[in-house]
Sequence to fold (747 residues):
Amino acid sequence: MSKLFEIALGIITSIGGFLDVGAIATAAEAGSNFGFQLIWAIVLGTVCVVFLVEMSGRLAAVSKHTLADAIRERFGFNFYILPLIAEVIVDFLVLGAEIGGVCIALQLVTGVHFQWWALPVAFAIWLLLWKGTFGLIENGISLLGLVTLGFVVATFELRPALPALAKGLLPTVPHQDTAHYLFIAVSILGALISPYLFYFYSSGAVEDEWDESDLGVNRAVAGLGMGFGSIVSLGVLIVAAQVLHPQGIQVDSYEQAALMLTQTFGYWGFILFAASLGIACFGAALEVNLDTAYVTAQAFGWNWGENLHPKQAARFSSVYTVFVFLAALLMVIGTDPLQLTLFSMALTAVILPITIIPFLVLMNDPEYVGQHHNGWISNGVVIFTIALAFILAIVAIPLEIIGG
Amino acid sequence: MLDHEMSRELHLELLLGKLVTDSRGDRLGRIEEVRAEEQAGEWVIVEYLVGFAAIVERLSAWNIGTALLQLLGARKLHHGHCVPWHKLDLSDPEHPRLTCTIAELQGL
Amino acid sequence: MLVACSQSPQDKQGDAITTTQSWIATARMTGEAWQQGKLPDAYTEQTLIKSQQKIVQQNRSKVIPSPLSEQLQQTLRQMIADVQQHRRNTIASSLEKLSNEQHQLESLAKNRGVQR
Amino acid sequence: MDLIRDVLDNQIVDRNQRKMGKVDGIVVKLRDDRPPRLTYLETGATTLARRLHPRLHDWVANLASCWGAKQTKSLRIPWEKVRNVGIDVEVDIEAEQTSALAYEIWLREHLIKRIPGGQ
Fold:
């Protein structure tokens, strides 16, 4: 019974935890610009992320070591420093974007400009990390994330044409705006296959003291949780494609995306959009900020843990304390939140290969995963994702340069 | 005496990745792993693993590594060189040298 | 647009027109939803002002002939004033004008071969 | 035992299983006619920095000497204190009584405890 409860809780958490500023922004961009054409990118990204998240959970449950620990130990610090630096830089931009998402949500509702909200939001994030436990953050905040299911409800209300949806499952390249199309495709994949998810998820599994008996829970949470989470992303894409695309509205600012649900739900649709954006981004901001402290502490072998009192893990707590306020400065100086989001998602795609390659080694290392090593399907998915990530990385760099 | 003692101290982590040449100056490969054993109550170094294959071995990814390399077209992946401790001269840690030739090493 | 700087002048003009169309559509949808009481005042005002700014920004290279662009600015100013003074009944005529201008821009885009 | 794979860069835990850093360096003593003997494990930022680049070592040492806990020397743990080498390296010492936690303690006293709720 308690296992069932744990699975249910885990799935709910992942729905809330999965959706972040990147998923919402890229899906809205994709739907408003290209209709259903980019559905395949969400589906593809989800399959990859389900497998990789399952692996990082399995690694943690069997070896009691996080992904970051394992990479550092097996590949040596001189290798680990590369994903570490890449991850911290990307986390910084993504955290800025997540804080921006919360600020925009507050601006939508109150009319007070988002720059004013940056520091109060950063303070709220910090306070929760300072006072809260891992369970509170994981379950409490993510439970609120269920409001994002509003997008799924709206999808059903709008009755999209199924053949058109099915056509979107096949990757196609449009005749015009190809560069923009590819840029968004890369950003979608970057938003879904985020390295922070793997580091965070495996650290969470160690915080929750998982062992081999939790492997079933892990599989269910990774598969169903991430699966449901991406249904919300699909919902955003479909609603944007049904509501904004026919009007000719191409989202290049959150204000435009905010109109998405008003057609279906009226005034409450507007509030629902703001609430979804705000809560999803707030939850993700907590995770990204914690993730930075995790990867840094684990890099140097410091004591770490959200369940510890700050004074028991002083260096760990200092990292998230300083980092969240630094990232908030990105918003204070008035960086455009949507542009920052798209940029950081594409950058995520660039650093993917270096994060995923270690999976191939660690998940086949009997010392870490024992008899629970990867089968050929899992290894196949990892190899495919590495290949995909390399292509994305190569494509993303010129696209970013073109993007100016 | 003390000075002599100090100079005889060596940081293994700095030895990692150093190019090993044989007594004639031919290159053998880079040091990738160091093996230790307990002998008569103390832990001592017994051998050094040298060469690219040693990395693969260090990552205990031998099976998947060879499978992948074969997939990429590598016909035969020779295993790394195993250098016993007494065959490696570490008096200059920047340039470790074999005290024999590569051929003699393989004949061991 | 994100890919603007790599493109030929024609593409650039096309992009400017598409972006302008997108912001006009945004203003229209916002105005209509506000009229029906589906949006808060502060958000509506901010979005209309942003639309106005974006349209001016896109028209730096004068892709839109000046009578039309002046009309557009006039209409948006009117709408913003309506929202500021909570005149839900008078915004209807502005919306009609905006829709009219939207059509003019659409035919202009068609003549230049810009497709959405 | 594979020293690079199983010891270098692995987590060090003290006798109470408290994390006290990672193995940043392994010191051996060369001897005539006898195999090199493992003498110390080293843990500390300066040792780690030297592995990345020799110049980084001086830079980190300078930084460490003027900021925070002013701990420039890495901690040396005699090999005899190593109890167990699994995925973690367990050593028979008390972390709090060594310099391994100098910065942890410094931050605790100077930053964490001064923030409300940090006591």
Q: What stands out?
A: The two ends of chain A are 54 Å apart (CA to CA). Chain A has one domain: 2-168+176-403. Residues 2-168+176-403 of chain A form a domain with the Amino acid/polyamine transporter I fold (CATH 1.20.1740.10).
